[in-house]
Specification:
The chain is mainly alpha-helical. The protein has helices at 11-35, 65-69, 83-103, 107-128. The protein has one domain (8-37, 47-128).
Length: 132
């Protein structure tokens, strides 16, 4: 009889879960790092272009891919969307992948994810404000 590994022990599953969770957290971290220092609620208003204030549609909110498909520009006004958004999403996704591979699907990964979001958001805010 062939032994069957539990799903959470399979590396491919950890990588897939880490990628999906990482992309979602990367998008959240980007929003958090933009809104928090400006004292803007993370709930309202919905995501919008900071230049023309056009609300973003679902197709504009797919982490990394929306930025690539729009070629780094707002689909409504053509204003450039900073590379900072992609970098924050990539760093958060990379750190999340590492956490999932290293810790697996355990309660410890939740603590790590909170730390990752906090660290990346604070680092982005400090870099943006010139506090290295």
């Amino acid at each position: 009889m062939i032994p069957v590994m539990p799903l959470q022990d399979m590396l491919w599953f950890r990588l897939l879960a880490g990628l999906l969770v990482g992309l979602a957290l990367g998008s959240f971290t980007t929003m958090l790092s933009y809104r928090a220092p400006r004292n803007i609620s993370i709930v309202r208003p919905p995501s919008h272009c900071p230049k023309c204030h056009t609300p973003l549609k679902a197709r504009d909110l797919v982490p990394l891919f929306s930025w690539l498909l729009a070629r780094g520009k707002c689909r409504a006004c053509g204003a450039p969307i900073g590379l900072r958004y992609v970098l924050i999403e990539l760093v958060t996704t990379g750190a999340t992948l590492i956490a999932f591979v290293w810790l697996g699907l355990t309660p410890h990964v939740i603590v790590a994810l909170v730390g990752i979001v906090a660290f990346v958001a604070l680092a982005a805010i400090n870099i943006e404000r010139g506090r290295n």
